[in-house]
């Protein structure tokens, strides 16, 4: 009994919202166009632009994960060196190799962004 009345109220509210028409849709923001700025009505270019922007964001996310992974390894190696389980030279080598890997990954992501 209560469920039926709740459904009726929900249906009435939905019908009222639909009948309001333009005032409901007027408050919505316009979507952000992709960075390629396709011509109006060119849906294929619009979809390609959104896929390109998504690929760039995915590449940036992978770069951030790589940076965090190198930082985690550096901190763990530093703690091992403080406890005497590892040599301090290993910390230095990890820092240098980690920096080289991050610079190389940044270079590859920059080149990939230009290709996409």
What are the main properties of this structure?
116 residues, single chain, mainly alpha
Mean pLDDT: 83
Q: Note the overall shape.
A: elongated
Summarize the main sheet: none
- Indicate the proportion of strand residues: under 5%
The helix count comes to 4
Number of strands: 0
Unreliable runs: none
> Strand-and-helix sequence, N→C?
HHHH
Residues in helix, %: over 70%
* Number of individual domains: 1
N- to C-terminal distance: 58 Å
Secondary-structure-derived class: mainly alpha
Radius of gyration: 27 Å
Structure, explained:
With 116 residues, this protein is an all-alpha fold. The protein has one domain. It has four helices and no strands. The protein has helices spanning 2-20, 22-26, 43-82, 88-115. The chain starts with a helix and ends with a helix. The mean pLDDT is 83.
Topology, please?
Blueprint lengths: L1 H19 L1 H5 L16 H40 L5 H28 L1
Question: Would you kindly provide a brief summary of this structure?
Answer:
With 116 residues, the chain is mainly α. It has helices spanning 2-20, 22-26, 43-82, 88-115.
């Amino acid at each position: 009994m209560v469920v039926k009345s709740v459904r009726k109220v929900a249906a009435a509210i939905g019908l009222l919202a639909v009948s309001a028409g333009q005032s409901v849709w007027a408050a919505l923001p316009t979507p952000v166009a992709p960075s390629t700025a396709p011509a109006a009505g060119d849906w294929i270019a619009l979809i390609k632009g959104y896929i390109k922007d998504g690929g760039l964001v995915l590449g940036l996310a992978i770069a951030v994960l790589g940076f965090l992974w190198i930082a985690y390894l550096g901190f763990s190696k530093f703690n091992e060196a403080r406890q005497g389980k590892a040599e301090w030279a290993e910390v230095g080598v990890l820092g240098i190799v980690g920096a080289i890997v991050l610079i190389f990954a940044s270079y590859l992501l920059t080149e990939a962004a230009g290709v996409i």
